[in-house]
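Private note to self, pasted from the team thread so I don't lose it. Backbone tokens:
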């Protein structure tokens, strides 16, 4: 189950969501979707648009977990760059993945535009190099994308980076106008409304306790109700292993922390992020940030695998002040955390557990666009068109080492290692 807790500034700045009832009956459906984050909501709306009877079961409320708490950044590509994917998977497979990741961004934009989802969508994502080696790697990747994928970004030197971002913390950055940012909770709630309009029934406060199958279909069981469905879509990301223990070796999770300052006073509001893009740096345990429409700096980062600290602001603020020392007198007003589903390869993990049950999870910090696409591909797969779903399903998944007992300590050790590497 997701950790309890507020969605911080996002909950305060989004319109209240409609109350949806829990499941208290037995229903028959063509498809039952478990989880109402981007994956589940997008699956539901694409299935419903195609005419399927869809029931969504959500343990809490729509957008309660990562989809309502995240950094809101819309990334280009995957966590591995295209050159690495070409070497690992071959050029054809890498290119198919690239096309789908490009589609993921346009899917978000199209959904927002077509259904008039009010979610503060903006264009622009800057990847800031934390050192010279990272800058050289960004340049190589930019040249590769331009040459082989006709995808153009713009490198910025230290002076321009300082002018656009309002900090001299970086030797350079890459501006990607194809990336962007949005208000994650508004987007999730918007998707829920669109799915309902298309005919999907969403039940909240309805944790699924078990799924079993017999000849009549898959039985998706909640405490007070049951859905019998031809197809089940597991869209529970970091929490998948609770329902499907066979997925436990493949899906890890880390807590990530987000904060929001008070609205930045003049002139800081103009000089910090003058470009109004979102920013992510190149560290393993990265800083990521952007400005809200009401002029706050939403600064996120740090990670922990267990025992997340109570004092989130105290954890994140020192990093923010390292990047933006001029914010010393601007208070941080909100701090919240969310659980990020990660895989060992940092590639999304798609697959099937039976002929009726498919899943997509583990977007590894890039789910705003990819989970929205993941839901669409799950819907295609459930409707008998698995080809595009299989482009992701064919990526070899790797198990986290250590078995049930050792997995947590080993991931924690890996995180610590990454923090040390970032520090040198
Ligand atoms: C703090 C943070 C920052 C992030 N920043 C970014 C970013 O800037 N850009 C980006 O692209 N990605 C980011 N991500 C990742 C992104 O948010 C996720 O990849 C994406 O939201 C995953 O969507 P999802 O629908 O698969 O999962 P979730 O949004 O986690 O939804 C899963 C749903 O399943 C429900 N559920 C779980 N178990 C059950 C059950 N048994 N029965 C019924 N329902 C159940 C949960 O309540 C939840 O609502 C971030 C994540 C976090 C946590």
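Design output:
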């Amino acid at each position: 189950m997701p950790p309890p807790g507020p969605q911080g500034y996002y909950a305060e700045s989004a319109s209240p969501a409609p109350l949806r009832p829990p499941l208290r009956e037995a229903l028959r459906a063509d498809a039952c979707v478990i989880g109402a984050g981007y994956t589940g909501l997008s699956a539901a709306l694409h299935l419903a648009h195609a005419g399927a009877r869809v029931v969504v079961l959500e343990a809490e409320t729509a957008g309660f977990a990562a989809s309502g708490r995240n950094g809101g950044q819309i990334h280009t590509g995957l966590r591995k760059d295209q050159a690495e994917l070409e070497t690992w998977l071959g050029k054809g497979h890498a290119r198919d993945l690239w096309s789908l990741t490009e589609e993921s961004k346009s899917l978000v934009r199209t959904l927002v535009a077509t259904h008039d989802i009010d979610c503060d969508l903006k264009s622009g994502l800057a990847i800031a190099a934390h050192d010279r080696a990272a800058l050289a790697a960004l340049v190589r990747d930019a040249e590769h994308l331009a040459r082989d994928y006709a995808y153009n970004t713009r490198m910025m030197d230290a002076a321009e980076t300082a002018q656009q971002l309002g900090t001299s913390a970086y030797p350079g950055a890459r501006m990607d106008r194809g990336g962007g940012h949005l208000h994650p909770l508004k987007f999730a709630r918007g998707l829920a409304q669109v799915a309902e309009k298309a005919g999907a029934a969403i039940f909240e406060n309805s944790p699924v306790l078990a799924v079993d199958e017999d000849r009549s279909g898959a039985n998706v069981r909640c405490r007070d109700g049951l859905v019998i469905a031809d197809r089940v879509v597991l869209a529970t990301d970091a929490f998948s292993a609770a329902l499907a223990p066979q997925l436990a070796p493949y899906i890890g999770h880390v807590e990530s922390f987000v904060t929001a300052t008070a609205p930045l006073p003049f002139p800081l509001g103009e000089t910090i992020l003058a470009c109004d893009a979102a920013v992510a740096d190149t560290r393993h345990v990265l800083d990521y940030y952007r400005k809200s429409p009401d002029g706050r700096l939403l600064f996120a980062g740090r990670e922990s695998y267990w025992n997340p600290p109570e004092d989130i602001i105290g954890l994140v603020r020192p990093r923010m002040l390292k990047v933006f020392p001029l914010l010393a007198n601007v208070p941080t007003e909100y701090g919240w955390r969310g659980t990020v589903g990660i895989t060992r390869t940092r590639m999304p993990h798609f697959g099937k557990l039976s002929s009726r049950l498919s899943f997509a999870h583990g977007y590894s910090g890039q789910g705003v666009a990819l989970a929205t696409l993941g839901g669409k591909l799950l819907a295609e797969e459930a409707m008998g068109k698995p080809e595009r779903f299989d482009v992701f399903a064919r990526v070899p998944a790797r198990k986290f080492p250590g078995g049930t007992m050792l997995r947590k300590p080993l991931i924690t050790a890996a995180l610590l290692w990454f923090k040390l590497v970032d520090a040198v």
